[in-house]
Amino acid sequence: MALPRVLVLVLAGGAGGRLELLTERRAKPAVPFAGVYRLVDFPLSNCEHSQIADVWVSIQQHPTSLADHLANGRPWDLDRTTGGLMTLPPFQGTERGGWNTGTANSLWRQADLIRQHGADALVVVSSDAVYKLDYREVAEAHLESGAEVTMVTTEVAADDAARYGIVEVDGDRVTGYAYKPDEPATTTATNEVFVFSPGPTLDRLEQLQSEVGEDDLEDLGTHLLPAQTRDGLARAYPLTGYWRDVGTVPSYWEAHRDFLSAEPPIDLDEPAWPVHTRGGRHSAARVLDDGQIENSLLSGGTRISGNVRGSVLSPGVVVEVGATVVDSVLLPGVRVRSGATVTRAVVDDGVDVGRGCSVGGDGDIALVGRRAELDEGTEIPAGGRFPE
Fold first, then answer.
1. What angle do CA 39, 40, 41 make, to 5 degrees?
2. Confidence of residue 92 (pLDDT cuts 50, 70, 90)
3. Residue among 92, 161, 129, 147 nearest 246 (CA)
4. What confidence score (pLDDT) does residue 214 get?
């Protein structure tokens, strides 16, 4: 019996404004994670291990930052003669051309292409979360259920639930859906992985577009998912393993903390399901004579002569003698000069933290933008932003 034909659409076009300076000059899916990875590596690796060869990535904001990383899809076995990786930039020339105004709007603009592909199941995923999931397994469960949409769900903290699409379920049937509600009815949230029956879903989008207008389709949770839920055609698929949204600066920082434990929540090098990335650009990490490391992740090309505790250092980071980095995430090429301290902070690409500088402290996460140069003695308080 032939396997169902599954198409994965990775939505990578959002502005990522909640990541503030981290997405000022790069696409959100291109934001580094855990030293050597990019956020888009997680859904693409899931596609590879799910044996799904048709993967489309919808790009919009800062496309070159993502295109450079994706290349031809080779790290995820997507460099194929037939199928494989395809990027979908904004386009003009038809009535559906233009700038995407939301995830549902993006789906509507690509409807003709999706119909022509003829997939049995359409998996739509975001690229701002860290997790492992067999998309094909979810797609097969969806096709067996007869639903129009299957929403992969996870449990979230009650004080954070208002950031998500929240569902009420009866068994595997979704009986209620609310998009980012002020008062969430449950703590069961969609984790931005949806499996759709392409034909019925696209037909419904056409009807919604005629009622509300293409720009007002907005996100999947605005009109589409509530309509499918009201008609009794939505099912839930619980994800029991680790899942962490990293779409805000605090959640991005907290996710790095998860991977500093002796037993991280997912094994990024698991032989049966490794997370792949475009790599091989850096030499081994070096801890020099004066360097002290505690409970940290070091990437290739890092050079440590100072004191690093509870931190994640991306490729090419340099921590000089007498410098201290505590509970922080340093992205590629950061240099922390002698006498400087960086505490509970996220520091973007190529930042030069000058001698004697103090970045962050006890409290909210500090954030330093890409290629900033902090003059000697600069002080950025806990929760501070540079530049403002």
1. 90
2. confident
3. 129
4. 67
